[in-house]
Design brief:
The protein is α+β, with helices and mostly antiparallel strands and 262 residues long. It is 36% helix and 26% strand. The chain has one domain: Glutamine Phosphoribosylpyrophosphate, subunit 1, domain 1 (4-Layer Sandwich), CATH 3.60.20. It is built from seven helices and 13 strands. The longest helix has 22 residues.
Length: 262
């Protein structure tokens, strides 16, 4: 297979999605109708800005209508070394979008010799969502969260989106998905200026637990199967996902505290 050659006017440059378009490969094509009850959906995810960076977390449940289709789905992914993306909505298209987003950031860095700014990365994801709108109108809605460490400001930043590609930067926290309202309420009550990593992790775990307590589509901790939320920290040192054992121990502490309060 030979690499494609473009004349200057048709060269997509560092735009990987533009490259796919030039080759006649649609990134998000969908023409057939779908039964919404048969589509796998993922919820709930959140992001919290703290003193050293930003945290991203998500439960592990995916549903198809009123059925649990997956108990341990991954909803939080590294976008590159210093940013992450969390997904809610139709799981298949969302994961495809994450993979394409990862490739876009890698492609840009290889072509340009430097990484996109955090704002540039958020804009790329916004464009992908806008391109996905026809599929979203057919029931394959995808709504992500994007967060990362910005070396220019020396702090974490987080962005929320809507289905049309609208991009909104949030100051301290954001939560999306069917349990997002319940999760964001917990974070709102617990978040404060100067919150550290340890406290932010505990807040995220409790927020997802309380969301699962109110929302059937959000999965709570499964101590029998050993399934716990995915929690990742993004700092000047990069993207790091917490070990399951650490999340399990913190979840156990939360459950003990809740039992003592009941």
């Amino acid at each position: 297979m030979t690499l494609p050659i473009f004349v200057p006017g048709d060269d997509p440059g560092p735009d990987f999605v533009g490259l796919l378009d030039r080759l006649g490969v649609g990134a998000f094509e969908s023409t057939a109708p779908f039964d919404a009850a048969q589509i796998t959906h993922g919820t709930t995810v959140l992001a919290i800005r703290y003193s050293d960076g930003v945290l991203m977390a998500g439960d592990r449940r995916a549903t198809s209508g009123h059925l649990i289709s997956h108990r341990s789905i991954q909803k939080v992914f590294p976008a590159d070394n210093y940013s992450g993306v969390a997904i809610a909505g139709a799981a298949g298209p969302a994961m495809e979008m994450v993979r394409l987003f990862q490739l876009q950031l890698e492609h840009y860095e290889k072509v340009e010799g430097s990484a996109l700014t955090l704002d540039g990365k958020a804009n790329q994801l916004s464009q992908m969502l806008r391109n996905h709108l026809p599929a979203a109108m057919q029931g394959l809605m995808v709504v992500p969260l994007f967060a990362g460490f910005d070396p220019r400001t020396g702090q974490g930043r987080l962005f929320q989106f809507d289905v049309t590609g609208g991009r909104y930067e949030e100051r301290d926290y954001a939560a999306i998905g069917s349990g997002g309202l319940h999760a964001s309420t917990v974070v709102k009550l617990r978040h404060h200026d100067g919150i550290g990593a340890d406290e932010a992790i505990d807040v995220a775990i409790e927020a997802l637990f309380q969301a699962a307590d109110e929302d059937i589509a959000t999965g709570g901790p499964d101590t029998v199967r050993g399934i716990y939320p995915v929690v990742a920290l993004i700092t000047v040192d990069g993207f790091e996902q917490l070990a399951d054992d650490d999340v399990a121990a913190r979840t156990g502490t939360l459950l003990d505290r809740l039992r003592g309060a009941s």
